[in-house]
Design goal:
The protein contains 14 helices and six strands. It is α/β, with parallel strands linked by helices and 306 residues long. It has two domains: 233 residues, Rossmann fold (3-Layer(aba) Sandwich); 61 residues, Histone, subunit A. The chain has a six-stranded parallel beta sheet with strand order 3-2-4-1-5-6, with helices on both faces. α5 crosses α6, α6 packs across α8 and α10 packs across α13. It is globular, with a radius of gyration of 19 Å. It comes from Chryseobacterium taihuense.
């Protein structure tokens, strides 16, 4: 399928990836696969900035709101499902769009995951005890000491990610970042990566304003409705953990919202660190013109014909 092309739209949270992905899907008359792991869950529309009904109507999306927060879904399952969907779409289209800011989920589609050992029951038990007695901050500290490179990009509010990485490091004696850096599979389609960039101050301002808009659109009510699922893995993420602390009486609302903004900015910084290491991303500037978009299309056609 070397005449088939996957256009992967990447960039930090709040930069406008959905808009660009839809523009590309409409131009190539194709469909979109999401690799935003938070948008898989149908109950988390507001806090994950899932595409609106209007955006979903403009181009067909896959892996948006396809799961419940009650379901467990691994990155390995996603790799299998996404590649199966790609095979199906490539029967009808020469180009398919991939979009999302979940770095490891994009990686698993474009490269594949390395064969890592299964979880060690002993390590997991020890780590769970640390989590319960010393809190997630202790796990963050352990991972930062063992593998500062991975700590830079991991969602360190998600304790399962921390447990998995530390477990693998303890089992193998090697950094987790090194073990996931080597591509396991070569894909039988071309990959064209497109990014959007903006000055750091402008990006952070967009993130702050987007959080305010989420609150206006009912994020607090969405979080309240998920109270009985607050311990599920899906909800251990920015926008939800902070508001659960407000609802539990630990924080006041203004402080919880300020923490959402701060943690969203931190996540964007980790995403920027990850993408900065890649040398195969064609960048558009935020607020790109029609001329810029035409130049992008020329680049895509050039890459697809190489």
């Amino acid at each position: 399928m070397k005449n088939k092309n996957l256009i992967s739209v990447v960039g930090p949270t709040g930069i406008g990836k959905t808009k660009l992905a839809i523009e590309l899907a409409k131009h190539f008359k194709t469909e979109i696969i999401s690799c935003d792991s938070r948008q898989f869950f149908k109950e988390m529309k507001i806090g994950t900035a899932s595409p609106s009904e209007q955006e979903l109507a403009e181009a067909k999306h896959h892996f948006i709101g396809n799961l419940s927060v009650e379901e467990y879904y691994s990155i390995g399952q996603y790799e299998t499902d996404a590649l199966r969907k790609l095979d199906e779409l490539f029967e009808k289209h020469d180009f398919v769009i991939l979009v999302g800011g979940s770095m490891m989920y994009e990686k698993t589609v474009i490269e594949g995951l390395n064969d890592l050992p299964e979880a060690s029951e002993g390590n997991q038990k020890k780590l769970q005890e640390i989590l319960q007695t010393e809190g997630i901050e202790k796990l963050q500290e352990i991972l930062k000491d063992l593998d500062p490179e991975y700590f830079e990009i991991v969602d360190f509010h998600n304790y399962r990610r921390l447990l998995r990485a530390i477990d693998i490091i303890w089992q193998t004696g090697k950094k987790y970042s090194e073990q996931i850096a080597v591509s396991q599979d070569s894909r039988n389609f071309k990959i064209i990566r497109i990014g959007i960039e903006a000055p750091r101050e402008e990006l952070y301002d967009r993130i702050n304003r987007r959080v305010d808009l989420m609150i206006e659109n009912g994020l607090l009510e969405e979080v309240k409705s998920l109270g009985k699922f607050k311990d599920s893995t899906a909800l251990k993420t920015v926008g939800y953990t902070e508001l659960f602390k407000y609802l539990d009486g630990e924080w006041d609302l203004d402080f919880a919202v300020s923490e959402i903004k701060k943690n969203s900015r931190r996540y964007a910084k980790r995403q920027l660190t990850w993408y900065r290491k890649a040398d195969n991303i064609y960048y558009l500037s935020l607020g790109y013109s029609e001329k810029d978009f035409c130049s992008l299309l020329e680049y895509i056609h050039q890459k697809s014909n190489e």
